[in-house]
Amino acid sequence: METLQTPSDPTKTDSNSEKSKSLLKEQIIDALKTVYDPEIPVNIYDLGLIYEIHINDQNHASIVMTLTAPGCPVAGTMPGLVKNAALTVKDIVDVDVELVFNPPWDKSMMSEVAKLELNWL
Description:
The chain is of the alpha+beta class. The chain is 31% helix and 15% strand.
């Protein structure tokens, strides 16, 4: 008896790929929550410094972030800290970090968790 093979369903692959990217993004977020702003005792993710996280099909992550102020003393080192944290995620191959100042960061970008930690609620 001959076995008939059905063509693979590309939507399943796309769905699995999107689930995988979503899981990797969550793991990157968890890793970024271990990085703290030296002037404010809150992690950079809850502080609202991470604007975007994208992961391509080759598991290369691109992160767009800002700082609390353009003259922040960690402007030279924070992108490296972010990259190193994201690279701790298994299966992430490489990370690009783009530092932007538009839109400028303000306190409204903080999560409820951050506001609670700082007693701002």
